[in-house]
Specification:
Elements: E1 11-15, H1 19-30, E2 34-38, H2 42-50, E3 66-71, H3 84-91, E4 95-97, H4 99-110, E5 116-120, H5 125-138, E6 142-147, E7 163-168, H6 171-175, E8 184-187, H7 195-198, H8 201-213, E9 217-221, H9 225-236, E10 240-245, E11 253-257, E12 260-265, E13 268-274, H10 283-299, H11 304-312, E14 322-327, E15 330-334, H12 341-348, E16 354-359, E17 361-362, E18 377-383, H13 387-394, E19 400-404, H14 406-420, E20 424-428, E21 432-433, H15 441-453, E22 459-460
Parallel strand pairs: 1-2, 1-3, 3-4, 5-7, 5-8, 6-7, 8-9, 9-10, 10-11, 15-20, 16-18, 16-20, 18-19
Antiparallel strand pairs: 11-12, 12-13, 14-15, 14-22, 17-21
Signal peptide: 1-29
Enzyme class: ligase
Organism: Shinella pollutisoli
């Protein structure tokens, strides 16, 4: 735990007592703050009280003398309308912040020079975060990994000299972290997302920009217009910018040329690493993730040999294009996190002969947008509620089977892939939510791994 000493002796209100909110309340109390915490869910309030957190309805709180409202990132700050707790705080002139802001303040107070890498973007955040953390850990460094990737940042070990932090930041967290100042800040890409919480695409982009604008070194993917303009703007303002690209050569920065990452400086480029053969870093999207990781690790002083070794040994992120088993030339890939068509596209673009397992609870638009990848699909195995609709979309373009269950789909796909000859992938990339058959995508992915492990002759990779 990181005790929040920067609010010691002060009165603090906190709203949102889920996993990260409860961790924040405990960290504030451990640092000596006088916390009053609340949640709209009575069970969360009861859990917090049982854990020793002082609770009380913030609507009845005397806001005089309150130093801050610490808001859970899942609670609306501005759109579609501010949460009632934020309205009360703002009316009283109380700052509204989040757990990442508290982390940033503790770092500045106790170990301002300890390396801190923060990662944001619409897509690829978690893989890039996990990849950087793996490179640092594999190189023998004291590394702490947290944030939006699933570990509350204030549950990490406290800042100290030589300790590296790798923190994934959502737009919600950045919006609540006005003094966030990473050693290396990464903005991977921007596409429309979370507009219900930010109002417009421009406001969403403005929030993401804050992370890199305040970084010692800003690493920006320049393959979309929003990010390209952000890189130019913050560079003019005096920020050191390293550009990355998954498709275009750069005069300065890190870019992909086929499967190779090129390191460019002053118009001269040299090969840095070849990603060919690294199963966990297939595809153009992973080339962008790897380019960002290379740039960030170089920025915080990691030597080139350690970076290359870390890339080569990266085990992948669970449920995201995760190689889980192999039988002969057939690779089994768990991409259960792909819960809509856009999320399934990277995996479908990364293999040449695919036995595709898809289906579940369909999202709006189905899989019509994936038609450009249909020539790569040897056969589809359809499961869950979406199976009839997906079958209609595939029509005569792709052979398919109505497998119904994941277990049946894995068995059928494995048998067909073995008979096809040559390299093939049995790919679970459902393009659907899991809720018709599984509690969440993690449970679905674990079930896939279990069914693959039960096949005869499979060598498991996890």
């Amino acid at each position: 735990m990181i005790p929040v000493t920067t609010l010691k002796g002060r009165r603090v209100a906190l709203f949102g007592l889920g996993g990260s909110g409860l961790a924040t309340a405990l960290a504030l109390a451990a640092g000596g703050a006088k916390v009053t915490a609340w949640d709209d869910n009575p069970q969360s309030v009861e859990n917090a009280a049982t854990a020793g957190v002082e609770t009380g309805d913030l609507r009845r709180l005397d806001w005089t003398g309150i130093s801050a409202l610490v808001l859970s990132p899942g609670v609306p700050l501005t759109h579609p309308k501010p949460h009632w707790s934020a309205v009360l705080a703002q009316a009283a002139g109380v700052e509204v912040i989040g757990d990442v802001e508290l982390f940033a303040r503790e770092r500045r107070a106790h170990a301002p020079d300890c390396p801190f890498i923060a990662i944001t973007g619409t897509n690829g955040k978690s893989t890039t975060t996990a990849l950087i953390a793996h490179i640092l850990k594999a190189s023998g460094r004291d590394m702490q990994l947290g944030g939006n990737i699933g570990t509350a940042v204030l549950t990490l070990d406290p800042p100290k000299a030589g300790r590296f932090y790798v923190v994934e930041c959502s737009s919600y967290q950045i919006d609540l972290a006005p003094s966030l100042n990473p050693s290396a800040g990464i903005l991977l890409n921007l596409t429309p997302d979370h507009l219900d919480r930010h109002g417009t695409m421009q406001l969403y982009a403005d929030i993401k920009e804050r992370l890199v604008a305040a970084s010692d070194t800003a690493i920006v993917g320049v393959d979309d217009g929003f990010c390209e303009r952000i890189a130019d703007r913050i560079e003019r303002a005096g920020t050191k910018v390293v550009r990355i690209s998954k498709r275009n050569p750069l005069a300065d920065g890190v870019y992909a040329e086929g499967t190779r990452l090129m390191l460019a400086q002053g118009g001269t480029a040299r090969p840095f690493v070849d990603l060919a053969g690294i199963e966990t870093l297939r595809g153009a999207h992973n080339a962008q993730n790897a380019a960002a990781a290379v740039a960030a690790c170089l920025a915080v002083g990691v030597d080139e040999a350690s970076i290359r070794a870390g890339l080569a040994s990266f085990p992948g992120l669970k449920h995201r294009m995760q190689p889980v088993g192999r039988r002969g030339e057939v690779l089994f890939v768990n991409d259960s996190k792909a819960t809509n068509a856009d999320a399934a596209a990277p995996a479908l673009s990364s293999f040449e002969r695919i036995h595709w397992i898809a289906g579940g609870v369909p999202k709006e638009g189905g899989i019509a947008s994936l038609s450009g990848f249909f020539p790569r699909i040897a056969k589809a195995y359809l499961i869950g509620e979406a199976a009839p609709a997906f079958a209609a979309t595939l029509g005569g373009a792709v052979p398919f089977a109505l497998s119904g269950t994941l277990e049946r789909a894995v068995a059928d796909a494995a048998e067909d892939a073995a008979q096809g000859g040559g390299p093939a992938a049995v790919l679970l990339s459902p393009a659907c939510a899991s809720f018709d058959q599984y509690k969440n995508f993690e449970v679905r992915g674990d079930a896939f791994v279990g069914h693959v492990a039960a096949l005869p002759g499979v060598t498991m990779l996890v």
